[in-house]
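Re-run with default settings, no changes from the original entry. Doing this only to confirm the output is reproducible before filing.
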Amino acid sequence: MERRRSPRIPFKAPAFILQKGKSFSSETQDISKHGIFINTPGLHGKGEKARVAIYLQNKNTTLSVTLPCVITRVSDSGIGCTSPHLEPETLLFISNLIHSQTVAPPEFMHAFYHYLDGIERHADI
């Protein structure tokens, strides 16, 4: 049974998990409304608090965004985190501005438009 409340948008970016005074290098896999999946070793426990630093980079430009989060899913390939501060639209907009010299892959744009369509439908309810 599908438990997700919003679609996942492919989103690859370098990231760091900051937890218990330690930093773990990782990479994001996808984002959704208030959620992010991060490819990282399973040294984290469900329900634990952490901070996720996401790095948006292109040539000489780097922008980092750090969010407080709660780990809601732990798997062999990584962790799922939720944060009320994660707004995928803003993150994607900034990422696209930084990467404006390159064209986003079609599957990324398709998932992004699907996500926006879901937001509009939810707002109409």
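The domain at 9-124 is CATH 2.40.10.220 (Thrombin, subunit H). The mean pLDDT is 80.
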